[in-house]
Design brief:
The structure holds two protein chains of two kinds. By secondary structure, chain A is mainly β. Helices cover 0% and strands 55% of the residues of chain A. The radius of gyration of chain A is 13 Å and the shape is globular. The N and C termini of chain A lie far apart (40 Å). The relative contact order of chain A is 0.35. By secondary structure, chain B is mainly β. In chain B, the strands form two sheets. In chain B, strands 2, 4, 5, 6, 9, 10 and 11 form a seven-stranded mixed beta sheet that branches. Classes of the chains: A mainly beta, B mainly beta. At the A-B interface, strand 5 of A face strand 5 and strand 10 of B.
């Protein structure tokens, strides 16, 4: 089974700090990558796609390292509202579909 | 624009009962998916429909059937519910197969 591995956490981070977490993927043929956030007892919501050149959306930066097969998410100036579980997702080649990691739990503390 | 809607939000079934979970999207997406999410297991794909008129098995299809009723609607049926099917079920859609997916609010199912 194609795997996406994440540190489950929780990451306890003070408000205003910068936090980063990685995920690794096992399928070297993976073509696309995404970060989703999921609040407690809610549906996953797309946070951002991850492009080969890396991409930034406000306080969030995603990077892809194909050589080492990992993607990262950096959150700057963290807010209380960033508290959530962050799901790393890879898309394999062909009809492999999406593989979801189990998520990293982030808690921003006041 | 409601996005992806699911009904019901909650359901309790007895072992052996059947039920259908409904999903509809108003984003004119071609592809639709059913997932289940269990503690410690992450999201697992049950079935998907790449386009209207097609359905395919995902990772965990046993015990389920699906129907792509039209472009908007994709239903999931449990013919004879088992306690192992206690889970949260999410429907999702995307404009093309396995592109960015948008999820519905989920159905929390308990089978006793």
């Amino acid at each position: 089974r194609k795997e996406v591995e994440q540190d489950p956490g929780p990451f306890n981070v003070p408000e205003g700090a910068t936090v980063a977490f990685n995920c690794t993927y096992s399928n070297s043929a993976s073509q696309s990558f995404f970060w989703y956030r999921q609040d407690c007892r809610k549906e996953p919501k797309l946070l951002m796609s991850v492009y080969s050149s890396g991409n930034e959306d406000g306080r969030f930066t995603a990077q892809l390292n194909r050589a080492s097969q990992y993607i990262s998410l950096l959150i700057r100036d963290s807010k209380l509202s960033d508290s959530a579980t962050y799901l790393c997702v890879s898309r394999g080649g062909g009809a492999d579909g999406l593989t979801f990691g189990k998520g990293t739990h982030l808690i921003i503390q006041p | 624009n409601a996005g992806v809607t699911q009904t019901p939000k909650f359901q309790v079934l007895k072992t052996g009962q059947s039920m259908t979970l409904q999903c509809a999207q108003d984003m004119n997406h071609n592809s639709m998916y059913w997932y289940r999410q269990d503690p410690g297991m992450g999201l697992r794909l049950i079935y998907y429909s790449a386009s209207e008129g097609t359905t395919d098995k995902g990772e965990v299809p046993n015990g389920y059937n699906v129907s792509r009723l039209n472009k908007r609607e994709f239903s999931l049926r449990l013919e004879s519910a088992a306690p192992s099917q206690t889970s949260v079920y999410f429907c999702a859609s995307s404009d093309a197969e396995y592109n960015e997916q948008y999820f519905g609010p989920g159905t929390r199912l308990t089978v006793t």
